[in-house]
Amino acid sequence: MSWSEKILRVDLGAGTCTSEPLNMEWAQDYMGQRGLATKYLVEETDPNVDPFSPDNKMIVATGPLTGTIAPTSGRWSVVCKSPLTGAIACSNSGGFFGGELKNAGWDMIIFEGKSDTPVYLDITNDQAELKDATDLWGKSVWETETTLRERRGDNDVRVASIGLAGENSVLYAAVVNDMDRAAGRSGVGAVMGSKNLKAMVVRGTVGVKVRDPMALMKTSNVAKEILAENAVTGEGLPTHGTQVLMNVINELGALPTRNGHDVQFEGAHDISAEAMAEPRESDGEANLVSNAACFNCPISCQRRSKIDPNHFTVKGKPEYQIVSGGLEYEAAWALGAACGVKDLDAVTYANFVCNEQGLDPITLGST
């Protein structure tokens, strides 16, 4: 395991950042980042707390394998009381932010209280500081991440932030990292916004330590071989992403369509993985530009997409005429089939806006 045995406690009201030891007994007894962070939340938070109260703690957690050579070890979670459900939220994300946080030497960050003014957390290894984010408040995720990278002068920093959705307490606001990876479910972005916390910036060069490096290497190599030989993780997901499910689930009669009124969508193929790879008649280019991988993930199921520059959604809007996070299956059915939309570029545009402003596309499309 790669526990750093150290957590960062950030008191937003007092403006302090304090290091404290990880409770290793809890780390052994509660499974992974979700189990451990939930244990901390339950122990430290009144179950009757208002999700938008300063007393609702927000925990950013990595797991015992995060940042290691284990495949798919880039995952991280945001845990708090959900404003959407009133239950415990555990929203998980990929990308590179989790691995960077662990490589900076931190297992978790516990945010408590509320800042009087907008702030962001700036971490470089064991140095952590709250900084003024007044100039960032009102900016999108994309603008915020770009600004903070330029401010740090280090393109290797990783950023997780909220957009207008989180600032305005949208109940399904997300925390977005690496421009288009998201802890998207249960409104964790709204809790972050309620604390006047705009972003987290982290750069980690400490590395991770594991108890038995050779055993981990051996086990990881076996796991990678299994993933490579499996038809889904070795071929289906790298080629088509989670969108490989669109036509399959539609044919099974289990595709949420037109707000749940139907179970099959006649336009499913038009917004499927296969359609993403087909050249458009308009400009001869495909919606899908490439696949991509999160931290140390051999599956590479991310989609990188570009919308036809002359499509009505982006014509005259150069900020959207870019290569960015393409459709996953969940966003495709929620923004596409569930809304009765079969225009692939229109659905992709809606997904771009969700990433830009920090919205959960699943809840948006199915609400």
- Taking all Cα atoms into account, the compactness measure Rg is 20 Å
Shape: globular
The major β-sheet equals:
6 strands, mixed
- Tell me the domain tally: 2
Binned, the helix content reads 25-40%
- Here the CATH topology of the largest domain equals Aldehyde Ferredoxin Oxidoreductase,  A, domain 1
By secondary-structure content and strand pairing, the structural class works out as: alpha+beta
Strand content is 15-25%
Mean pLDDT, as a whole number? 97
The CATH superfamily of the largest domain is: Aldehyde ferredoxin oxidoreductase, N-terminal domain
| Count of discrete alpha- or pi-helical segments spanning 4 or more residues | 13
- Please write the CATH class name of the largest domain: Alpha Beta
Number of DSSP-assigned strands: 15
CATH architecture group name of the largest domain: 4-Layer Sandwich
Distance between the termini: 40 Å
Strand and helix order: EEHHEEEHEEEHEHEEHEHHHHEEEHHH
Which residue ranges are poorly predicted, with pLDDT under 50 across at least 5 consecutive positions? none
Order of strands across the main sheet:
2-1-6-3-4-5
